[in-house]
Amino acid sequence: MKKLLFATALLTSLLLSACGSQKADSNDLANQPAARPEEGAELDPEFSVDGEDTGETAEPQPDAELSGMVDAIYQLQPVEAMGIETVAVYSEADRNSLPVALADERICIGGNAAAESYLNQKNIISAALATNAEAIHPGYGFLSENAGFAKLCEENGIVFIGPKSEVISAMGDKDTSRQLMQQVGVPVVPGTEVLKDVEEAKKYAKEIGYPLLVKATAGGGGKGIRVVAREEDLADAFHTASREAESAFGNGDVFLEKYLTHVRHVEMQILADQQGNILCLGERDCSLQLNKQKVLEETPSPVMTEDIRRKMMDAAVLAAKAANYTNAGTVEFLLAPDGQFYFIEMNTRLQVEHPITEEISGVDIVKWQIRIACQVPLNMKQEDIRLQGHAIECRINARSTGRVEFLHIPGGGRVHFDTALMQDTVVVPFYDSMLGKLIVHANTREEAIRRMEASLCEMVIVGVETNIEEQLQLIRSKIFQKGNYDTLILDKILKKG
Questions:
Q1: Contact by Cβ (8 Å): 301, 333
Q2: pLDDT tens digits, the chain, 497 residues: what are they?
Q3: Angle at which helices 174-184 and 306-322 pack, to 10 degrees?
């Protein structure tokens, strides 16, 4: 592979800037001309894929979309080291961003709105064809889990760095994935298949018992999900979840699932090559969430035992095999206090929080994504994976828009901030609010907590309001330090002050 296009501008910076690229002066970004396709390869904003839902009108998943630029610096590192040229596509809002400046080539694919740019499949494909890019890395938002886009890449002879379109489709449908997991013996939360109407829902709800969840079969990011505590609320929750899912994902199908309390959200990172080899790189505890959006992740989980880890890793590998999965992916589970765990879903993309797994495993997941896409087999076996130390990631989010007037990023050994943020960067309102990911690695959890606290205290961002103080409050809380938390506790921690 000689040339790789990144389907969001944000990806480009993370792979180049972190390795100290000198391709562009950050003070002269506005003077960098935008590359455009050659004559005869004009971009067509009206494009659609054979009448299928392309996702162009859907909002990017909040868990995955970024503020125009966050994970790029980190991800271009392996690309440059591998001798691969890079192409960055960008929206008008990201024209003067660091990712755009650092790429070898750059193409504006549309206006500020995601539907006009990062969700515009035809314009991205046209950009790839015009620049002779052999592959597209979709990142971890926007079109990264869009089966129609993956198929479009395949039809145009472009390598989609991820699983096959049919795998994305199958695992993106929660009903289909649940049934597949049940067939191969991966435990799932008690629930139903897709429901026809409210009356059928009421019938099965009596068998499952309250509280329960009404869940959309498509999508993610907390959309199309409602908690129901009593029968009289079921009809409204059913219709609301269905309408929300139809609006966001073009699919209003819903099912019921038992609502489990005091559980943790634990996910397993897998890598699968095209020769049938599958590795599991351990777990990440992603239980600390607000409004179903992750705020802080750590690995290993503070409540994980070796026995549970082994069983969950085996289940993750089994799930990947059953799905005929290739490339990087994440199998998500709910872990109950009694040690029982249940399959939730499989994310068929790179996760925002992948760096903490890389810290403890020593495996460069992004580099292996590219290698696997080039049909390179994994050169490691499961017994070669040695998880060392403890890593924590805090997501630094903007609470307002505007210009960054002053920026100080913490440094030191085993501390880094994955971002494309610079002084004078303008934070725009069009995408997700995440500015970057503050990551620390240490020998023990206690040391990692101290290192994260010190790093948060050192970080300064002036001109834009952020959640740095909230992250400090969380890190300093006794509940977090004891590791005694679940998916519903974060709101209580922040309210307690």
A1: no
A2: 889 999 876 554 444 433 333 233 333 322 333 333 333 333 333 322 233 333 333 333 333 333 333 344 344 445 555 678 999 999 999 998 888 988 999 999 999 999 999 999 999 999 999 999 999 999 988 999 999 999 999 999 999 999 999 999 999 988 899 999 999 999 999 999 999 999 999 999 999 999 999 999 887 767 899 999 999 999 999 999 999 999 888 899 999 999 998 999 999 999 999 999 999 999 999 999 988 789 999 999 999 999 999 999 999 999 999 999 999 999 999 999 999 999 999 999 999 999 999 999 999 999 999 999 999 999 999 999 999 999 999 999 999 999 999 999 998 889 999 998 998 999 989 988 999 999 999 999 999 999 999 999 999 999 999 999 999 999 999 999 999 999 999 988 887 65
A3: 110
Name the CATH superfamily for 190-258: ATP-grasp fold, A domain (3.30.1490.20)
Domain 264-496 adopts which CATH fold? D-amino Acid Aminotransferase; Chain A, domain 1 (3.30.470)
Residue boundaries of the structural domains of the chain: 3-162, 190-258, 264-496
CATH class given for the domain over 3-162:
alpha beta
Catalytic one among 226, 284, 309, 349? 349
Pick the closest to residue 482 from 303, 294, 283, 266 (CA basis). Answer: 303
Examine domains 3-162 and 190-258 and report if their fold is the same. Answer: no
The question of whether 445 is a catalytic residue gets the answer no
CB 260 within 8 A of CB 189: yes
